Structure formats: structure tokens, C-alpha cells
């Protein structure tokens, strides 16, 4: 059994469980408070703080883990990213008090005090910008620091931006972009153990399918050339004969979810009938 370190609570925990369940890897825990669980029968999940996951994986306590890329980079441990899971998207940004007359990093004078939960990333960011700063490490709620007079600026995560707005802070620079990642310790020859590659492939097929829909429609055979233009699919639409004397054919294709509305209108304009749109569970091109 390979151990996989998963966040025990917080923003990522629910999305991780949903992705695993959609991938056929149900988390079977003995109780809500269990620290370990069987994962799809093949892996053992261990539930720990998202911040600790890079250390656990780098030290070999777990074969792989799922956590935020910001936390992986902050850990400064040698870890390999197997897959971007695309949720938990956020940016680590520099922000200053609104009304402080600071619109960009160039407006920050001297050696500012920077409050942050990410001291290593912050130090590296300002070092590479050639700026001298004094770090004010905090374990949370960095947004309050400029208002308390203990820092001039903050480096903090932003997702929707509402926390910054509520706390009268203005973004003045970006340190990095982040999202949840599947990580592992690099193997001696850079190879990924087969079970971890299979896990990564299973999760990837579900993530790839999430933004796609499967469209089926019966279209007049004479319009096929024009149908190909509005229904490109992965390799062009699949075309299937119908037992109706040959006037119509069935076309099937994978379409980005964001294009469904337009695709249906275009197909209808070409005389399509019996349009069906379904979700896709997995997609392996
Ligand atoms: P928001 O108001 O949506 O911009 O979220 C900002 C707050 O949520 C800050 O306190 C951040 O520290 C936290 N936050 C946002 N995105 C994430 C994330 N992906 N992982 C962990 N914390 C986050």
C-alpha cells in the first residue's frame, strides 16, 4: 500500500475528496476523525495539514501528496509535480493599504516591513527584485498587519480578491500563481513508480473531462462539411449511419463546455435534430 498525504481540512480538502471519488478512489475512513483511510483499496490516505504535506512527501513518510503549489514552493523541498489538479487556484500577491499612495512596487520606499505566512517565497521574490525588506512572519491574517502598523505591505494569497477589498488592501505585484498539485519525491532516475503514474493518469482523465461535454445530433448528410466546422471534436466528429434511408447521419463529438450554447445553435441552424448533450466521466485522448 502506498501512502498518499491529503489535506485534513481547509479549502482543498473537499475538492480533493470529490476528485478522488470521481476517479473511482473512494476514501473509506472508519470515522470522520480518522487520520488514515483506505483509498480505492490500493492506496492508504493519510490526513495531515496541507502545510505539512511537502515535508511528509519529501521525507518519504508518504509516496505522494496533494497540496497547494504555493506550499510546495514555500517548503523549498525537492519535489516533483505529477499533475496540476486545477482547483484551489490562487495567486500570491504583494498588497499595500489603500490610500497609502502605493500603486506598484516602485512606490514602496526604503526597506519596507512585509507581513506574510510565506517568508521564504517573500524573501526570494524581493531578493530577485533587488529590494531589501524586513520580514514580519505571521501564521495567518496577514491582511491586518498594515492596519496595526506592524508592517508596511503584505504578501498573501488571493483567490476572489474579496478579502483584500474588505480589508482595504490594494494588489501591487504578483509573486506566483498556484493551484492544487499531485506531488511526489523525485525518484533516483527521475522515474515515477507505476502505481503513482496510474493514479496521476486516473485523476488527469477526470479533470480533462470536467470542462467537456459529449454532443450527439442527427444532421442532414448534405450538411456534413459544414457540421465539421462547428463540431471539431477531438479528431473531427464521429459519423454514424442511421437506418432512415440515408438522408440523415448521427454525429458525435466532444465539445468544450463553454462552447456548448453556441454549438447547439449552430447545429440547429444546419437542420440538426435530436440533439443530446451529456457529461463525460473520463477522457483519455
Ligand atoms: P479571497 O477573499 O477569495 O481572495 O481569499 C483570500 C483568503 O483566502 C486569504 O485569507 C487567503 O489566505 C485564503 N486563500 C485563498 N485562496 C487560497 C488557497 N487556494 N489556498 C489556501 N488559502 C487560500
Describe the protein's architecture and organization.
The protein has 285 residues and is α+β, with helices and mostly antiparallel strands. 27% of the residues lie in helices and 33% in strands. β2 (27-28) and β3 form a beta hairpin. The longest helix has 17 residues, at 194-210. The model has no long low-confidence stretch (mean pLDDT 94). Bound molecules: adenosine monophosphate (AMP). Adenosine monophosphate binds next to β10 and α6.
Question: What secondary-structure arrangement, pairings included, does this model have?
Answer:
Layout: E1 2-7, H1 11-22, E2 27-28, E3 36-39, E4 43-48, H2 53-58, E5 64-68, H3 69-75, E6 80-84, E7 90-97, E8 113-116, H4 119-128, E9 134-137, H5 145-148, E10 153-158, H6 162-166, E11 169-178, E12 180-184, H7 194-210, E13 212-220, H8 224-230, E14 238-241, E15 248-256, H9 260-269, E16 273-279
Parallel strand pairs: 1-4, 1-5, 8-9, 8-10
Antiparallel strand pairs: 2-3, 3-4, 5-12, 6-12, 7-10, 7-11, 13-15, 13-16, 14-15
